[in-house]
Amino acid sequence: MTDDISRALPPVPGVKKVDFPDLETPLAALAGAPPPAPAWFAETVAVEPESRFVEVDGAHIHYLRWGDKTRPGLLLVHGNAAHAYWWSFIAPFLARDYNVAAMDLSGMGDSDWRRGGYTMEQFAREELAVCEHACMFASPEPPIIVAHSFGGFVTLLTGALYGDRLSGTVIVDSPVNPPGRSGGRPPHSNRPHKLYPTLATALARFRLLPPQTCDNLFLLDWVARHSLKETESGFSWKFDPAIWRDFSIGDIAARLKATKCRIAVFRGEHSILLPPQIGEYMFNLLGRAAPVVEIPQAQHHVMLDQPLAFVAALRALLADWEHSLPRRRV
């Protein structure tokens, strides 16, 4: 389960909205067996990362790290209810040139759950703490943060508050909506997770939110398996269901405009959350001086839909940033 930014978005002119009232994941038909995967995937996830923890405001924050620590830093941040392993088939492609880390925000993945509630400011501090712990501020070049969906909203705040410590941010399918098009809020539920008697039963219940199809079952299976933990009573989801109690995302449009470093926006061509009109709105908020990059044939979960196209686009952007000066935003 992941990225339920909005269960019911208002329609956008020219964009077909697809309803999936009873969508069941194709993983159910596999009965717990891993689906076939291409060689590139097997080779990439075989690159074993370091697994580390850093304490932030009393919680242990988990992250994975690849590459040479002396290279420029690149932090990868997941979406709502997701985890660092959403990036483990992306990060090794980037580790040739960067010191790459993928983190678990508190209450998600293998990071601690917080008992006193969660705030966007705390999530932003977690991003900086992982950068620091992974030696990214020791490089002459400040780190770049690449963040998907809800992680993009966190990173907008990080860029607004601490952008002078960063080289840039890349916001991946995190919609900043104009007035009148509410993006909703994450799901509000304090109910404990269901327990599933077997891993196969739990995998059969995994689905993407917002609902969408996914042709790459091997990637869906990978992120689903790393979304679960085994307890004495069965298998359960890792994320804290109480994260969104009394939680506020804040004014993300203001944070987008207040970003103190370079910024780029990536969007899936067929994303229902960030269609072309929303990309244009964000482009205008940024003074038409920051790129909005469309990943062909991708929906909201860009790295699951088109992982290699996403890697190629990100490599191209980062290479350009190494050799060019940002346009001045007005």
Descriptive account of the structure:
With 330 residues, this protein is an alpha/beta fold. The chain has a domain at 51-191 and 247-322: Rossmann fold (3-Layer(aba) Sandwich), CATH 3.40.50. Helices cover 27% and strands 16% of the residues. It has helices at 39-45, 91-94, 120-133, 150-162, 199-203, 217-225, 252-257, 276-285, 302-305, 307-323, and strands at 50-56, 59-66, 73-77, 99-103, 144-148, 168-172, 228-231, 234-237, 262-268, 292-295. The strands form 2 sheets. The chain has an 8-stranded mixed beta sheet with strand order 1-2-4-3-5-6-9-10, sandwiched between helices. A hairpin with a 2-residue loop joins strand 7 and strand 8 (234-237). Helix 3 (120-133) packs across helix 4. Residues 1-22 have low confidence and may be disordered.
Question: What are the defining features of this structure?
Answer:
single chain, 330 residues, alpha/beta, Rossmann fold, eight-stranded mixed β-sheet, two-stranded antiparallel sheet, 10 helices, 27% helix, 16% strand, globular, disordered N terminus
In oligomeric terms, what are we looking at?
A: single chain
What is the count of DSSP helices, taking H or I runs of 4+ residues? Answer: 10
Topology order in helix (H) and strand (E) letters = HEEEHEHEHEHHEEHEHEHH
The rounded distance between the terminal residues' Cα atoms is: 39 Å
Compact overview of the structure:
The protein has 330 residues and is an alpha/beta fold.
